[in-house]
TrEMBL record:
Alphabetized InterPro entries for the sequence: DRTGG, Ser_kin/Pase_Hpr-like_N_sf
Gene3D superfamilies linked: HprK N-terminal domain-like
The DRTGG domain, residue ranges: 5-102
Source species, domain of life: Bacteria
One matching Pfam family: DRTGG
Protein name according to UniProt: DRTGG domain-containing protein
Amino acid sequence: MKLAQIQKVLEAEVLCGVELLDQEAKCACGSDLMSDVLAFTKERAILLTGLTHIQVIRTAEMSDLAGIIFVRGKRPGPEVIIMAREMGIPLLLTQRQMYEACGILYKDGLIGSSLKEETL
């Protein structure tokens, strides 16, 4: 699913990386535990999280994520947005709760990032 479509269905605001919205996210992961993201998330996944600190950007870079969606209207500070822009990581913000946002994306065909999904 293209990031532009994700932005549309989640009614998300683009914080940075509008020029990258034509990129494809292969799957999605909803987590507030960056250790789980590092351990279980596949490359080119989109991360949905309520965490807004700089470690989320570092995790996204290490995991080669397609982008980050901040849920519940959580807005990162300017230093987080600047770092993401420098690293080419698109940031979006939705007012939706994580459960709802993940459900919408799954319903629209974006699979999860779990090992179980590989067998489908």
